[in-house]
Inverse folding.
């Protein structure tokens, strides 16, 4: 086995002697003997590095990863986008990877400035004034948005569109067991949210485009929110944002989202990145870390985590959130990828996804028996209802070499359906082959 | 034993002490780095792709840079950043150990990285096996029954644990009556914050003069309205709670549950187990003990392991080993529900799994032995130089105090920290735990050689003899000098755009 | 156009200006980083594995360090190193351009990297295709007939070219009579060194007052004892040899061959071709023009392309396209023989191949256009500040001289270079070409933005106004200050062991 | 296509204007118009980065790379050793990869110190006093060793054992056409070199272990050299060196070798690494770069390339060699890997290779009709003579999933044979399967 402990036996003996001890066992004198584990851990002895790598290679081979042999048309919040060589290499720089939270800004300007740039990019993407330095994922960003809204409004009911990603809604519900917030599901009608008339919500949460891929009418949502004096919380798809008017533009108070599409592989679902932006007036309720610009003793520009009094290590039980370790490295990756895309590239990315999705959708809907789940306009993801149930379609499509999509969750309330995402990586040939394969498997 | 500059980051200014412009300042209209594959997908006019009222007029203004400038910018930023790979990082409570490079290779394996989280079970057998085995190893290490790997960080694990507590009490008809959770005054800030989010009230229990939970004071606070207690053991002073069995008994007696904050697990691998101490719920920070790199503040992973009676409440779906030898998902019957969009920080979990496999049971035990030895050596070495508020056998970290220096010469913990930066070391954790004045919480970890630990001690000794004036100007050799934190909060500039508009607030 | 600090390495001292100990000083007996796979191969006593008289008594004393210390050591060393990815590197003649990261991925592909060089042809079809296509592209770029990819660097290419020249003359019965090779006085040092190794004598031809080969002087030196001439075009002054057709005619007239030193090819991609100028043999530095990173001094690759009549002399085996569409090896009938252990620096060749494919013919032409534009802009910008010995339209680089500053204030080229290091730029090439006093040879390359080129010019202008005293202390912000080169030679310490024995000589 | 040129059209226009030009074409005014290439290069237009990567992935897939599907028993100077994760990552650090030759030592201490450590490690490995900062490969190191010896001795005949790697010998012969050196082949007898009696060689060149894997008697070679007042040049296998007495120990004047085994993949033969070490007395004839320790203006330890007057850029036609660009990055990689192996690891590596080779050799020789090519002791590589010709064996073994070895080159003068190398990566199961497969294919 490899040893990551540098100490030789001689080192250990010398250090023990310095401490006045004669054996390692004496280090444990404050541990009641009843608690001393006899015989060590019930875990196999260590493996050499090559043996360890071989074992995980074997585990990897026991998966069917997306790639030429399993072409990915699945999305639902986890997308198969291109990751350029430059981004991977920069984001893997060991100074970023093995740094800690920037508690000492004088030696952490690298991470701090990257986060400052990340915050700026997310703010621009969402059309809002301030963004935090990351949350765990899309789900946690929704949870925190609701917490912020409830705290700001002093009311605890939040209307949540069924068009919000099902696992995000489930996660919100899990955490609502602690906060006691009252989350009210709001149904979709033909693909977009049909807000109720009465009630006193603190906020409305809507996804844009929503889980069915449909573009929600944010102007209408804002109007409903205004009618109730409620806040508008929008979960945005940051890729579609390249062509859509921003959440901020429609008057959203908070925008959240999943940042995985920018530089992070599918990763079996994590680590991903919770995007969180809001209007400046809410900054003192912002969850998580915030980086601000300042100066050093000589007046040079410098960055530091700021408004720390919101945070748990200072505010403790009164903190705006309990988040401590967040997803910094994924945020840095996102910043690098967004800078790589730049103004023109993001738009081009969105267009390419949208064109691919349109082409695939037209192809699928031309098949006998395939119906749209909703007729509202979609951008880069869409749901169709095949004549056989969609889980079966997905299973059969595996043999055809495709990850065909994600079957719709019941909780969306749209019936059975297959959610299909098309990214800029999908070629016309792949889409044609995909449609042809779907035709075969639904026969 | 003191070798030459062991573990110190001796890296130096390549260039003048200049500012690095933001990517926005490097931007120039029309430049680009992006390129996309040729797909042959037909064109569509944009107005057929986006409904009219929702189409943006202008593209999102991001930045426009060449690949060359992008690479140079972020490479230069990386040179303004301290990291474990540059030198020692003795941040107490954080366990900034060396992360074996082998784990990077595991996280980069295509067979793991390119798997969609919603893919059918038949296509993810490798992942499920990996997760099941990791869960089993974590249970073996903590002495618990089963685990969820979903929580993406320690704090998320805490909140998950508190919701498990809640679910338990609810099923026992006590949801309304059990309102309080007890935490020691030395606890990490996430503990009280999580308690609040779990819907509970915080009751603080003081530490006694040994630095441990004051058991008498605890008993006073225990009643049937107590949902549970959250403890770290060793605690944030680096001391083992010697009365832990007594504490467990008392809490259980009133029907409360015991929560173990596993941030300090690096001290006890193979030595003792929270499960044996009587804990019901345990979270682990895989980014501390199990070598998931910190990434500048994340991502981490905060799995939660529980005793058998709590297993049915775990978040679902759980990866499980099926009777036929394959793997699948299982939703516990009384599950509190998901706590993550998918299955947790999977690639971070894979890193930890490979770290455990490579070290093995024997290697992990050695980890704790040497982590504790390094920290005790340091206490012996620096007692007399710094105050040691609790000068007794410590575990993997040791809390010093600069009160003696402050009294003598006005040298505060923060000054020591900033001077250490100059000396080529990251600073220890300062002003935490809150119950120690001018606290300097040092955790060398097992991956630092005796020479490095000695060099750190030498530097701390030199600094203790410094003039307060010299320290006030520190650090002078870092990419920027002492940073004005107050101004950042006073005149908030959270984005480059706010900067241009002269700062908000 | 001058933006904020474009392209400057603003990275700074993370830590004090300390020495980094050698790995030998970090070593401690018994430590280790290594681990090997479990193979199950039976044990054998060492004395059955090694014949008695040849067995070592003691293992080779290397170093004994933990993986953690190993990683920290070399990571810290990397922070003491300037590189293209940190900032501009305007080293004339070296073409230190940005190397696209995509090429790194290509070089790391398992399908390319894990191929044994002696593997049967059936298993290396991809490699052969890659090499054949690269050779074809290089011929298209240079206007030549066929190429060898074996030479591992430019100098190796030169020597290969001279041996080709030799083989040609030998086959024409003139091996004994053709003794001389002509090179201009501005030539790079490898040219004369290669001429000697090729068994020829060097005849130097002076440059005229335009900075080009003095054609009259050349004619005087031409005779039937001349084997050939070696030229760069643009030459090392960054100037196009306008009389090249005339030169070619004259050399060919006496039966000599023309050798093209391709170090400056970055200036003429898609604009003009050595083959069209009359050259018979061309080497290319793929590590200059085709973005193979320099690796701190190598590896590079120095393919040689030749006109049709010389093709049969190329080193073998050559990768070739066979009639059936597959690929194979071919030994030219009059081959001079191998010039490399295997097939050249194959992974470097793969990088260059991917760079050419990604840029395409159109992209490569743009490379030269902008490389030349940047260099001309710089000449216009700095004329008047520095002497410009040949102030006429230049190609991809421009040679300034500090003679004016030296006269005025004792500021020498080396001072300018060291001051530039402080300003966050790598220094230009200094004191080369030898024919220019106090030469500063600047090659911005096409990958530096206008802002970066402007910032470089600004810095050079500031420096030109400096006091000589300030410059004498430069550089002050670098990992070490001005290095004592004379002492290194006087008291030679070529190894750590020599150091311990107090230095050799 | 991607553009690595940052300049926008506006940038170009502005810069042209500053130069008083109105079009790019005017940049070419000094190029005779007859030479201007009309219509651009005859090379296809650029491809996007993903398209480029896909193309090279396809080329890679058209090879059969060594790995689980083609288990490597081939060596002959190119070995399939383990490359630890840490080494790959360190050696790929961009500061090392994208640095130039350390012309400005003040900003090149990273590369310089790494080379200084490399020189020290190579000197220790070979038992000599000084090593240079790298040559191209094993072949070029041999060429330079001969050049050094001839220059030192003032005689031009060199005896070259046929046990020296055939392509190295061919390369030496190629370059001898320029230098005029007289290289005399010396035959092997039963696997080791049989030095002739007469003649006036400037030097003897022998490989240790030699191309057949046999351990040459260096003491005898030294005695022969002494008898002629000649230098002893030894091409060492740096892995076997972990168990063998060093070349320096036997009195070698120069040791050369191929450094590929330390951290460099098979790479289809390059970039590799020419090792070159010699006695201090020859340092002024040393080819290539040499790094030395010195001090900076403040007396701090620093490194710099030294004795530069040997080099071509200063000495020009009188230089000791024409080498300029060398293999620095591979040398740095080698240094990192040697430090990773360390004292104990190198010995363990050598042992493991030797054990595997012994096990494989015993297995092969137990097969009917397989004979040893020579009986002299071998270490980690050996040659056997199969009953069918060895090129056929290699071809047939491909179908069995093995790269069986390298057929012996005629020029070795040992007849037909298969040269087999076993590294520390080969498991007992692999060796057993290999031997069984050989048994099948020679039937
Ligand atoms: C004692 C203790 N508890 C909990 C936490 C929170 O863990 P995380 O940062 O992973 O959310 C930390 C982290 O710093 C800690 O030190
Ligand atoms: C003009 C010129 N010729 C030849 C060479 C030699 O090429 P290499 O260093 O690749 O051997 C160089 C390299 O610096 C050069 O600039």
């Amino acid at each position: 086995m490899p040893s990551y402990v540098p100490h030789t036996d001689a080192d250990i003996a010398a250090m023990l002697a310095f401490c006045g001890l004669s054996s390692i066992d004496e280090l444990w004198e404050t541990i009641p003997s009843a608690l001393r584990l006899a015989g060590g851990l019930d875990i196999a002895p260590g493996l050499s590095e090559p043996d360890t790598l071989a074992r995980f290679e074997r585990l990897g081979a026991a998966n069917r990863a997306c790639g030429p042999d399993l072409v990915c048309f699945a999305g639902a919040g986890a997308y198969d986008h291109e990751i350029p060589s430059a981004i991977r290499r920069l984001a893997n720089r060991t100074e970023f990877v093995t740094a800690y939270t920037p508690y000492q800004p004088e030696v952490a300007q690298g991470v701090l400035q990257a986060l400052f740039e990340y915050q700026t990019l997310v703010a621009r993407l969402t059309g809002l004034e301030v963004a935090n330095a990351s949350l765990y994922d899309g789900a946690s960003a929704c949870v925190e948005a609701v917490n912020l809204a409830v705290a700001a409004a002093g009311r605890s009911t939040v209307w949540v569109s069924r068009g919000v990603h099902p696992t995000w809604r489930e996660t919100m519900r899990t955490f609502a067991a602690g906060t006691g917030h009252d989350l009210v599901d709001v149904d979709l009608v033909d693909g977009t949210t049909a807000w109720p008339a009465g009630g006193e919500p603190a906020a409305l949460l809507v996804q844009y485009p929503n889980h069915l891929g449909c573009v929600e009418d944010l102007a209408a949502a804002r109007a409903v929110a205004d009618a109730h004096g409620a806040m508008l919380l929008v979960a945005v798809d940051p890729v579609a944002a390249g062509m859509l008017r921003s959440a901020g533009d429609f008057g959203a108070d908070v925008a959240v989202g999943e940042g995985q599409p920018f530089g992070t592989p599918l990763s079996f679902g994590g680590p991903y990145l919770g995007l969180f932006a809001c209007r400046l007036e809410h900054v003192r309720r912002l969850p998580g870390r915030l980086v601000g610009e300042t100066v050093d003793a000589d007046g040079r520009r410098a960055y530091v985590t700021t408004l720390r009094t919101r945070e748990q290590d200072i505010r403790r039980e009164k903190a705006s959130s309990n988040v401590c370790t967040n997803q910094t490295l994924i945020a840095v990756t996102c910043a690098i990828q967004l800078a790589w895309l730049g103004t023109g590239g993001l738009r081009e990315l969105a267009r390419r996804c949208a064109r691919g999705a349109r082409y695939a959708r037209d192809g699928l809907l031309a098949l006998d028996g395939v119906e749209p789940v909703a007729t509202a306009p979609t951008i880069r993801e869409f749901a169709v209802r095949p004549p056989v149930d969609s889980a079966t379609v997905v299973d059969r499509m595996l043999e055809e070499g495709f990850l065909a999509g994600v079957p719709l969750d019941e909780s969306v309330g749209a019936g059975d359906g297959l959610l299909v995402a098309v990214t800029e990586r999908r070629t016309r040939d792949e889409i044609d082959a995909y449609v042809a394969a779907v035709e075969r498997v639904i026969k | 034993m003191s070798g030459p500059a062991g573990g110190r980051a001796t890296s130096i200014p390549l260039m003048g002490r200049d500012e690095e412009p933001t990517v926005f300042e490097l931007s120039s209209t029309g430049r680009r780095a992006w390129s996309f594959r040729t797909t042959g997908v037909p064109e569509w006019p944009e107005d057929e792709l986006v409904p009219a009222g929702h189409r943006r007029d202008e593209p999102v203004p991001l930045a426009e840079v060449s690949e060359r400038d992008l690479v140079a910018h972020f490479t230069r930023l990386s040179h303004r950043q301290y990291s474990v790979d540059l030198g020692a990082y003795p941040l107490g409570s954080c366990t900034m150990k060396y992360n074996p490079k082998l784990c990077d290779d595991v996280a980069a394996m295509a067979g793991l990285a390119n798997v969609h989280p919603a893919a059918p079970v038949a296509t993810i057998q490798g992942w499920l096996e990996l997760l099941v085995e990791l869960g089993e190893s974590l249970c073996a290490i903590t002495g618990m029954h089963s685990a969820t790997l979903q929580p993406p960080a320690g704090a998320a694990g805490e909140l998950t644990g508190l919701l498990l507590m809640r679910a338990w009490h609810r099923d026992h008809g006590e949801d309304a009556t059990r309102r309080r959770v007890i935490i020691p005054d030395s606890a990490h800030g996430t503990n009280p914050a999580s308690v609040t989010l779990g819907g509970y009230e915080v009751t603080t229990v003081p530490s006694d003069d040994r630095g441990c939970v004051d058991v008498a004071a605890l008993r006073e606070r225990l009643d049937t309205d107590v949902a549970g207690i959250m403890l770290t053991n060793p605690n944030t002073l680096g001391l083992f709670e010697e009365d832990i069995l007594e504490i467990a008994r008392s809490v259980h007696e009133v029907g409360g549950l015991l929560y173990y904050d596993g941030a300090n697990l690096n001290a006890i691998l193979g030595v003792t187990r929270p499960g044996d101490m009587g804990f019901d719920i345990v979270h682990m920070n895989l980014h501390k003990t199990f070598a998931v790199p910190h990434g500048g503040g994340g991502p981490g992973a905060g799995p939660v392991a529980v005793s058998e009676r709590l297993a049915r409440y775990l978040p679902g779906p759980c990866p499980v080993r099926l009777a036929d030898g394959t793997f699948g998902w299982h939703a516990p019957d009384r599950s509190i529900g998901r706590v993550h969009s998918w299955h947790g920080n999977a690639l971070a979990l894979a890193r930890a799994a490979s770290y455990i496999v490579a070290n093995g049971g024997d290697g992990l035990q050695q980890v704790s032995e040497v982590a504790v030895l390094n920290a005790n050596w340091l206490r012996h070495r620096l007692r007399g130089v710094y105050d040691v508020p609790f000068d007794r056998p410590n575990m993997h970290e040791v809390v010093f105090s600069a009160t003696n220096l402050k009294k003598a010469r006005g040298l505060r913990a923060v000054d020591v920290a900033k001077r250490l930066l100059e000396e080529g070391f990251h600073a220890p954790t300062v002003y935490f735990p809150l119950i120690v004045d001018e606290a300097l919480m040092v955790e060398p970890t097992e991956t630092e050689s005796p020479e490095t630990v000695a060099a750190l001690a030498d530097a701390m000794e030199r600094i203790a003899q410094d003039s307060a004036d010299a320290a006030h100007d520190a650090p002078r050799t870092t990419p920027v000098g002492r940073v004005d934190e107050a101004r950042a909060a006073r005149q908030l500039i959270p984005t480059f755009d706010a900067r241009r508009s002269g700062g908000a607030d």
